[in-house]
Sequence to fold (465 residues):
Amino acid sequence: MMKRTERFLALLLALALALTLTALPGYALAVETGETAEETVSEEVVSEEVVAEETAETETADEEAVAEEPAETETAAEAVAVEEAAAEETTADEVETVTEESTTAASTTLGSGKCGSNVTWTLTSDGTLTISGSGAMYGYSEFDAPWWEVDDDDFYAYGDVTKIVVKSGVTTIGKYAFAHLHGVTSTSIPSTLTSIGKGAFYDTPAFKTLTIPSSVTTIGDSAFSCIDGLTKVTIPSSVTSIGSYAFYGCYNLTSVTIPATVTYIGTMAFGYTYEGYFDDPGDDYLMSSFVIYGYTGSAAETYAKNNGIRFVSLGSVLATPTLKSITNVTNGVKITWGAVSGATSYYVYRKAAGSSSWTKLNTVTTTSYTSTGVSSGTTYTFTVRAVNSSGVSGYNATGLTIRYLSTPSVTLSNTTSGVKVAWTSVSGASGYYVYRRTENGSYTKIATVSTGTLSYTDKAASAGV
Fold:
């Protein structure tokens, strides 16, 4: 019996050692492959059963330790597997969340197309309407602009357009282009803009302040009428004309400063609002507290007096300079004008033939200016404005026009028949005048030569003179 027990204990010790050596690799395998771990655990359990059968007569603490060891191995393997599965699930959730957030953040294009000969529009799902290109936009009827017709059941321009971006290059906002867009809270207008069309922003109520670019010269009828939130507007000195009802119905706008450059203000452009519907006759009424700030003798003062609106003078209007002369000189085109009382300086403007906008060339304190950088054969028009601390004067819109011709280079030579004068060709010239003078005399025109000829011989010249 003793020998049998010794053999049993030896067997148990051998089995315990074998299981110990097997359990550690089994755990390592469980980290990498769950299937191999399960097979190892299963084999160890079978070994336990064999040992249990052989030792049915005796149960010791050693047996319990041997029996529990595979169970601990199995539990550790399962824990690792669970941790890996949880990690994979968490990663998947994170990827899914990021993907959903990215999808939400990205806006999509709902519609696009042309809205001018060289102007296009794009509307995105975040409510941004972008106008790009060059030149003028098309004009529309109310509710007829193409962004009102976007084929999307979840989008309606009336409230869903929230931002208008007009890119540099666009010169005119078309009639009723952005009317009735009640969701708009932000608008970007470029410095290339020269004209704002009729009803362009009519009944777009979210504006609070409005700064019109200094490039704009014309504000059309009803351009900003019925904008409930508008409390402040800045009109630049570039503006010369403000149409009828331009700011009608802006009942939170209590005052406006109108520059002296404005020469036309239409019916009920400022200071009027309504009690009922906009088009109902008899509903118009004058806002008694409205104030116009402007210059004595200006269109602003005349409008205020004619409509019974309080007028506060900012000074006297400078007279428009009288343009006197324009001539081609050696290095450019020279223009002169009469002095204006009260003026401290003058702005000089130029435009080339075919251009509709003036370019400011310089500010001078004299009453003449020579414009260089002109091209021979090109026609230019010039005008001038007077300036002082109160503002700027109006200007002669017709201006003075001239075709610039550069000065030809001249050479002289004596011939048997007289004095020969030759010159270089001048771009744009249709002919040439030939002049002569003696040493102390004045120039006298002696010939007119066609454009194809670049020399002339003066046979009347006296020898020795």
In short: The longest strand covers residues 379-388. The longest helix spans residues 61-105. The two ends are 161 Å apart (CA to CA). Confidence is low (pLDDT under 50) at residues 1-104.
